[in-house]
Amino acid sequence: MFREFFLSSNPLRCAWAWFGLCINFFMVVFYVWNSLRMNRWQGEFYDAVGTVKRLGLSHEEAVDLMYGLVWRWFSIMGSEIIVLPAAKILTTFWKNSWCFALYDRYIELYTARRIQLEGAPQRIQEDVKQHVNFFESMSGAVLNTVFALFSFM
Fold it and tell me: CA 85, CA 107: separation in Å to the nearest integer?
């Protein structure tokens, strides 16, 4: 199932397979990195609220501090709003390309055997889609867990 896409004889398909895998890896790393940034921002924000009250900062100093934190929040969320949907679109195209590569191979094998099975194309489609979705979700979950553990150490 991996050979038909990642080691394809078609160089364009093979390049797209490895590029899409890199995009998936980048998306997980970016998501964990942004989660870490958001976690740190929340700590700074709540510390700043306590600091303003404890130190008795003037109104202008408190406003400057809060606006600085709000702008950092916008940079964190803005990067997520821009990068993650674009990466998600690319990964969806990548998944579909993988499915099409598998469909092509299995239809080729199916027609070579000349055995007529009722509902075989539908079964192939369901199995391939299930395999690709499982691989994407499991690899994303494992990478997300590993990177999250290392980032919060």
Answer: 33
User: Mutual orientation of helices 59-113 and 120-151 as an angle, nearest 10°?
Assistant: 150
Question: Based on the number of CB atoms within 10 Å of its own CB, is 21 exposed (0-12), middle (13-18) or buried (19 or more)?
Answer: middle
Answer yes or no: are the C-beta atoms of 4 and 14 closer than 8 Å: no
Please state, in angstroms and rounded to a whole number, the distance separating the CA atoms of residues 147 and 33. 9
Q: What is the pTM of this model?
A: 0.71
Q: How far apart are CA 65 and CA 88, in angstroms?
A: 35
A 10 A CB-CB count for 24 gives 20
Is pLDDT above 80 for 63? Answer: yes
Interatomic CA distance for residues 10 and 124, integer angstroms:
22
